[in-house]
Design brief:
heterotrimer; A mainly alpha (301); B mainly alpha (321); C alpha+beta (572); A: 301 residues; mainly alpha; MetI-like fold; 12 helices; B: 321 residues; two-stranded antiparallel ribbon; 14 helices; 79% helix
Chain lengths: 301, 321, 572
């Protein structure tokens, strides 16, 4: 492997071993996979938590009792039947805020995930398949992006270009693809040397065909697993930025809610508690899911 | 460890550093309003603009600008903060020690505790205590650090009065000597604890996994068969080898740790870089922002380098590659 | 954390007792509005000229404490410098006014009280003011205070950099003469009524000529190591952390100050300030957040001081400005609709927690002779707002945002969306305004900007649709109100005429009021101005704010001004 430093060599040796060949995209392996995940307590918890957040986010309009931006009750009211999570200083319902916050988190996570997947898979695949000088060059670039401190770069970008969801997704996406690329590369490298790839090459298939049809489907699972863990970190990052008041002020986000809570900590513990719980659940769900997938897909031996 | 190895590693750091400087340069030039506005602000006067233009060579062709900028940065000259009217590097240097104290304490504490906890859990894998450690780690890892901080503040500082509520020192309190150090330590306790708890989770998880893997290895089983006691096996054989990935993980934490430090500083009113960072964002004081960014990036690069060197020292196989 | 920590911590906890003394803290501006309110002036209602002042000193404090002590004060942000003459920023003034003096202070009823000037004569019906300065005042570095310091401070600094001084007396001030070291004469081109109201340490602090002359006042290092004449002198300034002041033993007011030390700690977060206060780490708060007031009030050792006077300025009204140069805002009906759509009581309740009052007139009730009563202010009436918007050509489908249909200067189909620029500390106002205007089909985008950037964007670039500013009226409408409405104040000077309001009649009325000495006549003129303003709505006045200070009963005798601690003392 072309890992240039011991540290990166370790990073290359990921937890995930290649999955068995998924040639015909049969349904059976998928269903078994899901069942195996759900059989472990961690897996079950992970799936349910993640699913909960997704559903809440998607159905925000239906689930939220009121408009999260409009005062709906007495200010700083503790949790009660009327307002299950209490209200904030302006009298806005916190439950609605948390529900719509889920939606914002979904948007951030999916958009960033898409960007990261796009860049990371492309770079990792090309690097792992081509090898040689291309691989070296791409790995240099990847290492560089790995080193960039995401949080501070995001803060700088926000300072210069103003807060906004699109900027955030762009910055987070551009700084998070590197490790995914390494994971994909490791997978692709190992897969490229397997017999079925040799066979495909021998039968005259073009490189593109081999990559797309043979390698990618086998490499993606590992990538997706890592993506889950990565997105958990992205979620935490976005929450921290929101907490610091650097998020988009025209959107409801969990981090922003928690940041508002800092002033009223003494008198309104719920303002800090519930958004924090929401974030923790989402991140926990993604982490558990990632761990369960790792175990089920081969994991450590 | 050979000098050549060290030398090679140092050389490999250079392109990274160059890249980071380039990123800073690009950001200045891409910012709306152009580089002068980015560096010198909207409401500076002509004299100040002229000064900054000269310092950063902003009226020169681009490659020359880059060279000037890189030269400035490497000399530690980051420009003059127009809000404070002082060199940015001075302003940052003032705030830095407090942040380093907090981050450093958390790093050391979490590394020690994380390794200890992880090994402890691995010694009795799948037992109750293992389950406890892994679950706790999982939850701590998922909880946002500002939330942990706010909860800690509420429960440990407010309700019980065990810890001070904010700041690094007590106003009007001791200014020098042991009394001052103790005052600072007392204020440091809770923020460091909160910050460390996140890191502990990550380190513990990895140590546990590493130790488990080593315990299952052949030579360890041989040692066990030979009749050595559990503990000695664990420490001498498994832990040493398991330290390798742990060192890597610890070495990769500084970037993440510094981000967490900023947040914890805000929650506890710790007078470090966070306040500087946040005011600079709102006032768009780019020299300061750039300075902090470059500083953090340099720290991460340095941490990676140190990690590699320590790794090389720990694992003889690596040196000769 | 390693195992050893727990034990060590317990040991530490045992070793260390609670902190020393009562340590008050200050935040700068009133509740929920921590922003450095850029304008605030001392209060003054009485501008009638007097041949000589009452000659009274500030009443000696009723002694409850033994005197002395250290006061720890919480402030919300780093002042960025300790020279109050070069800025109207509340942050700088809060931290530095104790170090300086003005010529004339203002008493509780806003009557002039001697400070650096021990007496004065008003001649030529207010076109000439002669001040007789004290001869026993020295600067903190030992140099004597003379009339040259006054002349320098005004000519080179205040008239150039202090926005309210510039805007008010600048145009009509002809010259400042110093016939001798103890006499200063202000000569105006026409009678200038309000002068005595704007000579205190907030409006016109006097800085030392021997340190500043020949240098750029904005850059002089003395801004970080100040030398003044005030009751306290400078010890140290750790940026973003702490400012330490100590008693000035040579202060010219006998027996003052009592406190030995004033320490200002920077605690940006309001909640943390309250926590610090409750923990005894801080002993004076400049503002108590609404939700904490009830709890603190229940504590018998906590005292409050509520006042509309702040070191940054007095009689402040949270005011929404409309950028009249933008087509959407140029339409009076839209502005009226916004006014009717806003529920100002809700602002008072939710943002200020009941502290303060809804603004009944464009001029603050803190200036009773000028505050107009019974004006036809737009009431909270969403139905009327919707009707006006329909009439103005803004159509609405269902509950969504309105779109233009036949609006002058606006393409059909453009949504009724506009920006609202504000200091980050005023974000609650923005959020509430956004929510209230949503109900009638307006889409507001919030743009939080820190003061320097705000000033640049609003006053220089004029890039905004609406904004909110804490316009402090001060103690005389000439000082803090004129600059909002007079067309000569449209321009780059921050916190002047944000709306770009132009009305010749209003200009004329202001000019006349400045020349008129009789209070009743002046009041009538200002009433006319306010009636026009309410009809034309270049601004909309939301709430008058007050500051609620808090301190421990072990301290006493604070004043509601920038010299808040001059007469105070704390038991140890």
């Amino acid at each position: 492997m072309a890992g240039s430093t011991p540290a990166s060599a370790i990073a290359d040796a990921t937890d995930v071993a290649p999955v068995g060949r998924v040639g015909a995209l049969g349904r059976a392996p998928r269903r078994r996979l899901l069942r195996r995940i759900l059989q472990t307590p961690a897996g079950a918890a992970g799936v349910s938590l993640t699913l909960l957040v997704i559903v809440v986010g998607l159905l925000a309009d239906l689930l939220a009792p009121t408009d999260p931006l409009v005062p709906a009750g007495p200010p700083l009211a503790p949790p009660s039947p009327a307002h299950l999570m209490g209200t904030d200083a302006l009298g806005r319902d916190l439950l609605s805020g948390v529900v719509y916050g889920a939606r914002t988190s979904l948007v951030v996570v999916f958009a960033t995930g898409a960007l990261v997947l796009l860049i990371g898979v492309t770079v990792g695949t090309v690097s792992g398949y081509r090898g040689g000088r291309v691989d070296d060059a791409l790995m240099r670039v990847t290492e560089f992006f790995q080193v960039l401190p995401r949080f501070f770069l995001a803060i700088m970008a926000i300072a210069l270009f103003g807060p906004g969801l699109d900027l955030l997704v762009l910055v987070l996406g551009l700084t998070s693809w590197a490790t995914l690329a390494r994971v994909v590369r490791a997978e692709v490298l190992s897969l490229s040397q397997r017999e079925f790839v040799e066979a495909a090459r021998a039968s005259g298939a073009s490189d593109t065909r081999i990559v797309v049809l043979e390698i990618l489907p086998n490499a993606l699972p590992a990538a997706v697993v890592y993506l889950g863990l990565l997105l958990a970190q992205v979620l935490l990052l976005e929450a921290s930025l929101g907490f610091l008041g650097l998020g988009d002020p025209n959107l409801v986000s969990w981090g922003y809610l928690a940041g508002q809570a800092q002033r009223f900590l003494r008198v309104a513990w719920w303002l800090s508690f519930f958004p924090g719980v929401a974030i923790a659940f989402a991140v926990l769900g993604l982490n558990l899911l990632g761990d369960a997938l790792t175990d089920v897909l081969g994991g450590r031996r | 460890m050979t000098g050549r190895y060290v030398g090679r590693r140092l050389l490999q750091v250079l392109p990274t550093v160059a890249g980071i400087v380039l990123v800073g340069f690009l950001l200045i030039h891409l910012a709306p309003g152009g580089p002068i506005i980015a560096l010198a602000g909207d409401s500076g006067d002509d004299e100040y603009y002229a000064f900054m233009t000269a310092k950063f060579g902003l009226d020169r062709p681009l490659p020359e600008q880059l060279a000037t900028y890189a030269g400035n940065v490497l000399r530690g000259d980051l420009g003059v903060s127009y809000i404070q009217g002082r060199p940015a590097i001075d302003v940052i240097a003032e705030r830095l020690p407090a942040t380093l104290l907090l981050a450093g304490t958390a790093l050391v504490g979490s590394s020690v505790a994380g390794v200890a906890l992880g090994a402890w859990a691995a010694a009795r894998a799948h037992s109750i205590r293992d389950l406890a450690v892994t679950s706790a780690a999982l939850v701590l890892y998922a909880a946002p650090v500002f939330w942990l901080g706010q909860l800690a503040l509420l429960t440990l500082a407010l309700r019980t009065g065990l810890f001070p509520v904010q700041g690094m020192t007590t106003a009007g309190g001791p200014e020098t000597g042991l009394a001052w150090a103790l005052d600072v330590a007392r204020h440091l306790a809770l923020p460091a604890l909160v910050l460390a708890s996140q890191e502990v989770a990550a380190v513990a998880r990895l140590t546990r996994a590493g130790v488990l893997e080593e315990l299952a290895a052949d030579h360890v089983r041989t040692a066990l068969a030979k009749g050595l006691s559990d503990r000695r096996v664990l420490v001498r054989h498994a832990l040493r080898r398991a330290l390798l990935p742990v060192v890597t993980v610890i070495g990769s934490r500084p970037g993440h740790l510094l981000a967490g430090t900023i947040v914890v500083e805000v929650v506890f009113g710790w007078p470090g870089l966070s306040r500087l960072l946040l005011t600079s964002v709102q006032t768009r004081d780019t020299p300061i922002l750039l300075g902090i960014f470059l500083l953090v990036a340099a720290t991460v690069v340095l941490a990676n380098l140190v990690t590699d060197l320590v790794y090389g020292w720990l694992d003889p196989r690596i040196r000769y590659r | 954390m390693g195992r050893g920590w727990a034990g060590w911590l317990m040991l530490l906890a045992v070793l260390l007792a609670a902190c020393t003394g009562s340590e008050p803290g200050t935040a700068e501006s009133p509740t929920a509005t921590r922003a450095p309110s850029p304008d605030a002036t001392a209060t003054a209602t009485d501008t009638a000229t007097t041949a000589a002042p009452t000659g009274e000193e500030t009443p000696s404090p009723t002694q409850t404490a033994a005197g002395g002590g250290t006061l720890v004060v919480a402030i919300s942000s780093d002042p960025g410098g300790l020279n109050p003459a070069i800025t109207t920023s509340g942050g700088t003034h809060t931290a530095s006014e104790l170090l300086y003096n003005g010529l004339v202070d203002l008493g509780p009823d806003l009557e002039p009280i001697p400070e650096l000037a021990e007496s004065w004569d008003v001649e030529e019906e207010g076109a000439l003011y002669r001040f007789h300065l004290r001869d026993d005042v020295t600067w903190h570095d030992g140099e004597p205070f003379t009339s040259a310091d006054v002349k320098y401070s005004f000519e080179e600094v205040l008239l150039q950099l202090h926005s309210r001084t510039q805007a008010s007396m600048g145009p009509s001030l002809e010259s400042i003469e110093t016939p001798d070291e103890q006499t200063v004469e202000f000569r105006f081109s026409q009678p200038y009524a309000p002068l005595l109201q704007q000579l205190n340490v907030t409006e016109a602090p006097i800085i030392p000529r021997h340190i500043y002359e020949g240098t750029d006042p904005l850059e002089n290092p003395a801004n970080n190591e100040p030398v003044g004449t005030g009751p306290f002198r400078f010890v140290s300034y750790t940026p973003d952390a702490e400012i330490v002041l100590e008693r000035n033993p040579d202060y010219f007011e006998e027996g003052l100050p009592h406190l030995d030390e004033v320490i200002m700690r920077v605690i940006p977060d309001e909640g943390s300030q309250v926590l610090a206060f409750e923990a005894g780490e801080v002993g004076w708060l400049w503002g108590v957040p609404g939700p904490d007031q009830e709890r603190l009030a229940a504590d018998p050792t906590v005292e409050f001081l509520q006042t509309p006077v702040n070191p940054g300025g007095a009689n402040c009204i949270m005011t929404v400005s409309f950028n009249l140069e933008r087509p959407i805002m140029a339409d009076l009906r839209v502005r009226q609709a916004i006014a009717h759509a806003l529920n100002r009581d809700q602002f008072l309740e939710r943002v200020l927690f009941g502290q303060g009052q809804v603004a009944a007139a464009p001029i603050s009730s803190g200036i009773p002779w000028a505050h107009a009563e019974g004006l036809d202010m737009p009431a909270n009436d969403p139905a009327e707002a919707e009707r006006l918007l329909d009439e103005a050509g803004w159509q609405r489908e269902g509950d969504g945002t309105r779109t233009a249909a036949g609006v002058e200067g606006v393409d059909d189909g453009t949504p009724l969306a506009f920006t609202f620029v504000h200091f980050p500390t005023f974000s609650a106002y923005g959020e509430l305004l956004r929510a209230q205007l949503r109900e009638v089909g307006m889409d507001v985008t919030l743009v939080p900007l820190e003061p320097p950037v705000f000033a640049e964007q609003v006053f220089t670039a004029r890039d905004f649709d609406t904004n909110i500013i804490s316009y402090c009226n001060a103690t005389d409408p000439e000082i803090g109100v004129r600059r909002m409405y007079h067309s000569s104040n449209i321009g780059e000077v921050p916190f002047s005429n944000a709306a770009a309001y132009r009305n010749d009649e209003v200009d004329r009325l202001f000019d006349e009021a400045q020349r008129t000495i009789d209070l009743e006549q002046r009041g009538a003129l200002y009433r006319q101005i306010q009636e026009i303003a309410v009809a034309e709505l270049p601004y909309f006045w939301i709430v008058e704010t007050v500051g609620t200070r808090a301190y421990r009963s072990s301290c006493s005798d604070f004043q509601p001004s920038g010299h808040f601690a001059k007469t105070a003392s704390c038991e140890q």
